[in-house]
Design brief:
This protein is mainly α. The protein folds into 2 domains: about 100 residues, no CATH class; about 40 residues. About 80% of the residues lie in helices and about 0% in strands. The protein is built from 7 helices and no strands. Helix 1 crosses helix 4 and helix 1 packs across helix 5. The chain is flat, with a radius of gyration of 18 Å. It starts with a helix and ends with a helix.
Length: about 140
Amino acid sequence: MPASVLGDQTCYLIGRKAGPTLFRLPDSRLFRQENVEKANAFFEKYGPRSIVLARFVPIVRTFTPVVAGVSAMHYRTFVTFNVIGGTLWGVGVTVLGYFLGQIDFVKANIELILIAIVVVSVLPIVFEYVRARRANRDQRSCDT
């Protein structure tokens, strides 16, 4: 748990220091000002709870601290919710694993259950990606 919190702190600081420079690069495919604006809107809409919720979503948890740094989320707020999220993640997953491990069905089908959890966790990302691509395609067809 402490390592995950420290890792997110490091990613936040990387995003805070290097992010704005990267987002100003005109030809960067990965970093665009549009993404910073989306991140700012995301954090304004969901606030600090987004840091806690991201802990429980594979892939998203990797990028959330960097985006929080780039979008200049207040550092004290980030630290507070990062510690809360890290604690909930570390303790919650451990306790949940212990109790679920006592159920025979779970013991017998753990691999399938884990695959299902990953698939369900990634679906919102896939849906958002497809939605964004469709929106871009529709916008390009309207522009021509």
